[in-house]
Design goal:
alpha+beta, three-stranded antiparallel β-sheet, 5 helices, 22% strand, globular
């Protein structure tokens, strides 16, 4: 089929009609790295606690090939909304938004309820299980060129190069990326 989706919501909705049973639904972006044992561990945690509905994670957020943000409640690791990556999917669930990801199910009263608001694994729980993933959104020149063009981040590549030349740490990512 040569069909383009009308935005990200339509794109992420597309595969849901093919899922006919309860399962774990993961959102893994192309610039994220997860280990096999992390996926197995998360599955086991959901199996051991059937009341859990979603899971939040911390990540190592790379802003260069060898520069990483790991600080909590800063850019790349905000506990108020990042990184929701796994849901206990049930047929009938659908996406209300992509950014932030909101997967909803109808309640008994027919009202849509965000699965992440019911009983998610929180950051501290997944971290205790060793479930911190590697996220490489700003690791290469090509990524910065793309973000500059696609998202309109003016000066992204130039500022990224300035960050690469930094010698004193820690730094504030917002000093280099004004969209933060």
């Amino acid at each position: 089929l040569d069909v383009l989706w009308d935005g990200k919501i339509e794109m992420v909705q597309a595969p849901l009609k093919n899922i006919q049973e309860e399962c774990l639904l993961w959102q893994i972006d192309a610039d994220e790295l997860w280990l096999k044992n992390q996926i197995i561990t998360m599955r086991e945690a959901f199996l051991n606690d059937p009341s859990r509905t979603a899971a939040y994670f911390f990540c190592h957020y790379f802003v260069a090939p060898d520069l990483v943000i790991t600080t909590r409640n800063t850019y790349g690791n905000q506990t108020s909304y990042e990184w929701l990556r796994v849901w206990r999917f049930k047929p009938g669930a659908h996406w209300l938004s992509h950014e932030p990801p909101v997967l909803a199910v109808p309640s008994k009263e027919g009202k849509l309820v965000n699965l992440a608001d019911i009983n998610p694994f929180r950051h501290n729980e997944t971290e205790a299980l060793g479930l911190v993933f590697q996220h490489y959104p700003y690791a290469t020149e090509a990524q910065l060129r793309f973000k500059e063009l696609y998202y309109g981040y003016k000066g992204a590549l130039k500022n990224w190069h300035e960050l690469q030349r930094a010698k004193t740490f820690p730094l504030q990512a917002a000093d280099f990326f004004d969209w933060i």
